[in-house]
Amino acid sequence: MRIRVLxxxxxxxxxxxxxxxxxHDVEVHESSGRIFNGASGNIPARLHLGAPHYPRSSAxxxxxxxxxxxxxxxxxxxxxxxxxxxxxxxRDHSLIDFGTYTRILRDQVEFLTLYDPAEFGLTYVEGGVMxxxxxxxxxxxxxxxAKALDGAIKFNMPIGEVDxxxxxxxxxxxxxxxxxxxxxxxxPCLVVLLKxxxxxxxxxxxxxxxxxxxxxxxxGLSSLSSAKWTPFSKTCKTWGEAKALLDGLSAxxxxxxxxxxxxxxxxxxxxxxxxxxxxxxxxxIRAMPLSGSDSRLVDVVRVGDHALRVRAGxxxxxxxxxxxxxxxxx
Length: 330
Description:
This protein has nine helices and 17 strands. By secondary structure, the chain is of the alpha/beta class. It folds into two domains: about 1-80 and about 140-180 and about 295-330, FAD/NAD(P)-binding domain; about 85-130 and about 185-290, 2-Layer Sandwich (D-Amino Acid Oxidase, Chain A, domain 2), CATH 3.30.9.10. Helix 1 crosses helix 9 (about 320-330). The longest helix is centred in the N-terminal third of the chain and has 18 residues, at about 60-75. The termini are close together.
């Protein structure tokens, strides 16, 4: 089949390689000038264990557990373990208490309870745990896909008609930029890259809280994100509206938002002010699903006679998305 894939992020690149290996003629159309230019290259890349980050969604927990082994088998070379990886429940405003949180974890993952979170530099938390987790080195994965798909990717390509008869099939992997079905809102996002230690990650749960997470050890970078401050807006109903908001931001707007995020994290991990400095800012748009329970499941649906749309779940679900697509195209 002659197949067009829209979007050169994690899902677009991985699905394209799988379809090429299956003998299909694949073109990847990327609207920007580089791969991983959207959320794939600008959002912290955890290889989720499920329950620690999504204690309110049993479906997401199960999906993460089912997908992790096959993801590591194929892409494990792009992941690294985190020496000290802490999840802590905030003392106030959390959607879950620490006792409930640990009961959920106990059924699914191995963890150590922090006897005294203050020994790890934490403040204003009800309790914390330390557990094993791997993160994805985005720069390494990006370099791999750029090489593996050399010649197959066309950059700065207008999308045009998704359900185009010029191709046997178009697979839209643009993170719902062209199709808002099942999307609650589009969030224009900021992630701050900080220069400093990369031996510790600290994530505050569960609710409008921040996370300091390893990004690239070789470059000495960690990412800072915040459920409250990473989105510049939570009211954009279309991808175009979110893109217009990002395009209209000034450098001062971005820096001000970054300082809100640093202050947010400093309330729980004060060392962020002394040990880290701002290195870079990353902007992207993420499509948030219609889910009050924090469900993050991959979804593949037909959107025309010659088109499928992938709504991305977590990164580890890319191989599941490939299976679904292969089954749909027979």
